[in-house]
# Entry
Amino acid sequence: MKDIKFDFNDILIVPSEITSITSRTEVNPFDSNGFLPLITAPMDTVVDRTNCDLFYNNKVNVCLPRFEERTKGDMFESYSLSQFEEKYLNSVLDGKHCVLIDTANGHIQTVIDATKKAKDMYGDNMVLMVGNVANPVTYKILSNAGADLIRCGVGNGAGCLTSFQTGIGYAMGSLIYECYYMSLSLDKPAKIVADGGMKEYSDVIKALALGADYVMLGSIFNKAVESCGKTFIKGSGDAIEISNVEAINHFKRGDLGESKIIKEFRGMSTKEVQIKWGNEVLKTSEGVVRYRPVEYSLNGWLDNLESYLRSAMSYVDARTLEEFVDNSEFINITNNAYLRFAK
# Structure
């Protein structure tokens, strides 16, 4: 048994003794491309071709689910390992490619082999994201194989049952922290994409302070009225399916009274998704389907996140995301300490 690992609720970020920042406007919470350090989870109840430009225009990096084509050149398209090998490894395609090898188990040797071969073939003409992984050593191996970004996290997401059903996983806070310190010893470390289990603004902020370059969001974005997937109005009777356009108009007008706008949310290993993808043999589901009320607009949530992130960075005297990682110190807290402020 190794040392006990920690999650977001187990820690707090300690303010610097003195900060030179007098205004949040001095803080830059964006990456080198001017985007927030966020990526859409490639889930069909979050993002597709109908709404991907909305995320993009709100400075959120976009990763589309399988079988959805990008509308902008720097959006990521997702492929299963076999789809990726068939499309990209049989011959070199022209142009720039932003691609996710979308596998639940990124520890498989064939994923590592495909990563190395693809980067040998395409070099900088392919921005390659791989994963998921839940072992810091696998992060190192995939970095050395040439991966540009690695999704870190297995079993933590709201639509995922992997850890619950199989007992496989790694506490998310420790995973990010250990992958970050692993990255410091590498010649070309992959960007760390913290994927799964974010519930509050503070979870996203802690993930970034621990060393994540990006945070991938599914459940949080699904609860925005603009997310894709089936949408319903639920009052005292049966739920009635409506279009996303209708949902957005109702949300803006606030004219539903006691009724609520409901969104379907499902993990991408559910049997419903397997059927949608045309799988002839259905695997045991490690995902879940839920129906949840809409809580906010995308723009409203992002405005809040940006404001809270700027505030957190100012507390630790960090003007950039890189300084936020360098300057952040953490304390472990008891569950009673957490409950004191978790209102």
Q: What stands out?
A: The chain has two domains: 8-224+300-335, 231-296. The longest strand covers residues 126-133. The first helix runs from residue 52 to 57.
